[in-house]
Amino acid sequence: xxxxxxxxLMNTTILSTGNKGGVGKTTTAQGIIEYLMAGEVxxxxxxxxxxxxxxQLNNCEVLTIASDPDAARVEPALEMxxxxxxxxxxxxxxxxxxxxxxxxxxxxDRFSAWARLCxxxxxxxxxxxxxxxxxxxxxxxxxxxxxxxxxxxxxxxxPSAQIVYVENQRFSRxxxxxxxxxxxxxxxxxxxxALKTAPSICIPRISxxxxxxxxxxxxxxxxxxxxxxxxxxxxxGLGKADAKIARGDIAHWMxxxxxxxxxxxxxxxxxxxxx
Length: 275
What we know:
By secondary structure, the chain is α/β, with parallel strands linked by helices. Helices cover 45% and strands 16% of the residues. The chain has a seven-stranded parallel beta sheet with strand order 3-2-4-1-5-6-7, sandwiched between helices. It starts with 10 loop residues before the first strand and ends in a 10-residue tail after the last helix.
């Protein structure tokens, strides 16, 4: 369900969550970042993950907080303290654009605990910020279960936030699941009821899996769309026709995702004008 939230992108916090690895949280965060940049909205980025993928994809400063799964057992206080720079970033960017935070796998519980301890929700509300939580899942049962848990934990820690459900369709789609499958039953039980009131978007599969030629080299979607044919050929080894097709596939994907974000965020700029 797409619904316009009409938010002020000059004072917004967006979190990409899901609590399971490989479901598309960073892809979702990157899509949002490129959407905002294309609309000339100032973007401030934080990634809580061992992988510094967002720092590699974007030509801007990224606050990267490495995951440390063993820290909670060794020294719980240090585990909570590692989130401290995130509060500093949020304080420094009030009214200065949108802050996008990508929460890595298994970080939701730790982040939620920290958010409650430091009264993060009160801080965000007091600063007049709108907070959106893009809760990402795919058509796998465990991903759906973790997304439901993530929504519950994040809503508890940040009660003023709006949940946006994101179905990543890169490998499969919920609507294609076998009617008798456990994954579909779990989706109908845990996610479908929430969609009656919460907005949602789909991150579609890129036709021909064309981004595979650029993903390992950490080339952003927008940069691919702007590359000339010979540059793509040099980077990927593709022939001329395939290079053009790959660029078109990614530009089409961006138009789809940007159009949905336009509807959700109510920014009022046509997706085609951003690409």
